[in-house]
Amino acid sequence: xxxxxxxxxxxxxxxxxxxxxxxxxxxxxxxxxxxxxxxxxxxxxxxxxxxxxxxxxxxxxxxxxxxxxxxxxxxxxxxxxxxxxxxxxxxxxxxxxxxxxxxxxxxxxxxxxxxxxxxxxxxxxxxxxxxxxxxxxxxxxxxxxxxxxxxxxxxxxxxxxxxxxxxxxxxxxxxxxxxxxxxxxxxxxxxxxxxxxxxxxxxxxxxxxxxxxxxxxxxx
Amino acid sequence: xxxxxxxxxxxxxxxxxxxxxxxxxxxxxxxxxxxxxxxxxxxxxxxxxxxxxxxxxxxxxxxxxxxxxxxxxxxxxxxxxxxxxxxxxxxxxxxxxxxxxxxxxxxxxxxxxxxxxxxxxxxxxxxxxxxxxxxxxxxxxxxxxxxxxxxxxxxxxxxxxxxxxxxxxxxxxxxxxxxxxxxxxxxxxxxxxxxxxxxxxxxxxxxxxxxxxxxxxxxx
Lengths: 220, 220
Hints:
The structure is a homodimer of 220-residue chains.
Chain A (H helix, E strand, L loop, with lengths): L2 E2 L2 E2 L2 E6 L6 H14 L5 E7 L5 E2 L12 E2 L3 E2 L8 E4 L10 H13 L5 E4 L3 H7 L7 E2 L6 H5 L6 E2 L5 E4 L2 E4 L4 H14 L1 H10 L12 H5 L3
Parallel strand pairs in A: 3-4, 3-8, 4-7, 8-9, 9-13, 10-11
Antiparallel strand pairs in A: 1-2, 5-6, 12-13
Organism (chains A, B): Penicillium cf. griseofulvum
InterPro entries (chains A, B): Class_I_gatase-like (IPR029062), DJ-1/PfpI (IPR002818), INH-QAR (IPR052158)
Protein name (chains A, B): DJ-1/PfpI domain-containing protein
């Protein structure tokens, strides 16, 4: 993202995929990056344990539908990244091999990242990896009790659309990831680029990170 | 969706995929259907010309990033559907084989559908298939001039988040598909189901179909 000889270095984005990831957690922010990549230098790695397509279908809900996305790299062959996005979803629960792999990868790669972005219960995976220790972060409000019970080492922020602490950006549930990523794009690429993208997707942003009508609904 | 012997018949959803579809056009509504399917009977067919993964990468933008989704059926082997969702995106332009196949499929299947849903410039594919003739519909506001120029047989509605005419539900650009599908779920499954889903994705709905701040921005 820095400029060298007039040509900006790429933004190298990675996304953690596992069975039962929440589709909008990934594809809300991704659509913003897809549009950004049409005018700016962006590379993408879709990361998982294997190169087999990864379904959004929850592992514990046999009747549910899902969509399958093709990874580009395994965790063990991941390229260097600037930004890693960790989605949430029903698949974050438990300790399947895929989830254990994802948590190990997050723990190992975090020191090399410029930015870690979590959406929804993706913050639970980051918390289990230990990389949120001592940091402020937020998460999905419906799953608040379960996620915040994972560790006492995180300063969980209840009323927040998203939270920034150092290089960690964490959002509340699902669609909040869109607001987080547009705020991130505004910070890194400027307000005009963020506005062009939100207008392209005809999205009325929540620009106040403390805007959170869902905090009350969760009854905490 | 009707009840027979106490067990509700499935909602059979299909989605048209082609290279350069807009990811949020598909995955915004799909995440709502994914959540719906965890408590209601829903089946899904992801349809394309072949069973090869379909990328969101625009065919005309070599440097852009994209994500690839795995179809479940070809157009020629599509199962019977209740609802077909047609996304938009940069890939809708032109007359590639994939787009010609999609338009033929939309034309052929429309008489058997209970509902046709278009998001963003997906309405352009439906218009080219002739199935919007004589109907009111809307589309993406940034591409308004190009889409409405495709045919004079459609009553294009400029200021609209979404439009319903008979069994055709058409939305404005990208994120408007989420509001459309939540309104559709409210109509078919009731307001409580729609509210549960919008709360699950922490999405503040636009419930007024005429709400459209992007109509002015397009300068028409």
